[in-house]
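How a chain folds remains the central question behind the approach discussed here. No coordinates are needed to read the tokens, only the vocabulary itself. For completeness, the protein is quoted in full, as a sequence line and a line of structure tokens:
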Amino acid sequence: MRAGQVLLVLLAASAVMPAKDPLLNVCMDAKHHKTKPGPEGTLHGQCAPWKDNACCTANTSSEAHRDQSYLYNFNWNHCGVMPPKCKRHFIQDTCLYECSPNLGPWIDQGHLHLSYWVWTGLCLLLSSAGTASGLSLTLLGGRQTLRKKHPQGS
């Protein structure tokens, strides 16, 4: 399944009403996330599917769509003008990360008291790390670095 299709499945699954499973109704402990998911009224553009139960604010959803945003001090056009289709993909990724209350199964709370995604399968670049644990994974956009938690070959 292509990354875009996986993202759409995750978007649809995470935009539903609050789940009863505690892992599926939590916000990450991160810089721009609310402490608890809840209605936000209006979210901007591609973040709108989470308006009824969001971990992001309207301001965060608006910033996710800006070429130069304060969210990560990152410019979508840092390598030249990003094609619209590519930009749409990364904005969807940002909205999922910032707004979804259903990322609990992929949150790793063990790094500096902030939450990190683990094994999301979304837009990851693989690079050799030379560590005993395997590969280092860096999200495109440089938001964070994750270490492979599974032994080699699994």
Notes: Residues 117-154 have pLDDT under 50 and may be disordered. The longest strand covers residues 124-131. The radius of gyration is 15 Å.
